[in-house]
Amino acid sequence: MSTAVKASGPSGRPSCAPRITARLREESVLAQFARFVLVGASSNGVYALLFVALSFLGSFTANLVGVAASTVLANELHRRHTFRAAGRVGWFQAQWEAGGLALIGLGLSTASLAAVHILFPGAATYVQVSVVIAVSGIFGAARFLALRGWVFRAPTFSAPEAAQH
Predict the structure, then answer these.
(1) Among 119, 103, 124, 109, residue whose Cα is nearest residue 55
(2) CA distances from residue 162 to 26, 84, 85, 155 in whole angstroms, order as listed
(3) Using an 8 Å Cβ cutoff, are 50 and 133 in contact?
(4) Contact indicator for 40, 109 with CB cutoff of 8 Å
(5) What are the tens digits of pLDDT across the range 89-128?
(6) 90-129 as b/e, with b when 16 or more CB fall inside 10 Å?
(7) Contact 82/105 with Cβ under 8 angstroms?
(8) How far apart are CA 93 and CA 88, in angstroms?
(9) Which residue blocks in the chain are alpha helix, DSSP H?
């Protein structure tokens, strides 16, 4: 007798949530990218909240604080969840290497804010946040590849090394 309970949706049919959850837990590139996007969306939410809350300090200061805080959060979530590298990459190493990549993003977001200020003086805060998030999304694809292939790269073993262990 099975004691497993199947989750069902509102219509009484089995829910797809367990299948989605199982796929997100895989180690495929697609699953890692999906987790990367979820972390990115979460950290962009933190960025937006900080930017709006600190906008009275000026958009450049609010951008710097928002990028710094959301980057530290995202780097840690990527280390633990996206790439499951907590056992092989320490917190400081993740912040240092992934943070270096974030400096490129900070430069791009600052340049995009400067462009908004020049092209659309007096643009609303939501316009500025939208532009920065759009630039972050575009840069995010390149960042995913760099994080996956460099910062949080899974260890590789050559055939002779693997045979010795």
Answers:
(1) 124
(2) 23, 22, 20, 12
(3) no
(4) no
(5) 899 999 998 888 888 888 888 899 899 999 999 999 889 8
(6) eeeebbebbbebbeebbeebbebbeebeeeeeeeeeeebb
(7) no
(8) 10
(9) 17-24, 29-53, 59-77, 91-119, 125-146, 159-164
CA 18 to each of CA 7, 25, 91: distance values in angstroms, whole numbers, following the listed order: 8, 11, 31
Query: What phi, psi does 124 have (nearest 5°)?
Result: -65, 155
Q: What is the pLDDT of residues 11-46, one digit of tens each?
A: 666 678 888 888 888 888 999 999 999 998 999 899
Contact 112, 132 (CB under 8 A): yes
pTM of the model: 0.70
User: How many residues make up the chain in this entry?
Assistant: 165
Backbone CA torsion sign across 104, 109, 112, 113: negative
Residue whose entry in the numeric block shows the structure tokens 């937006």: 48
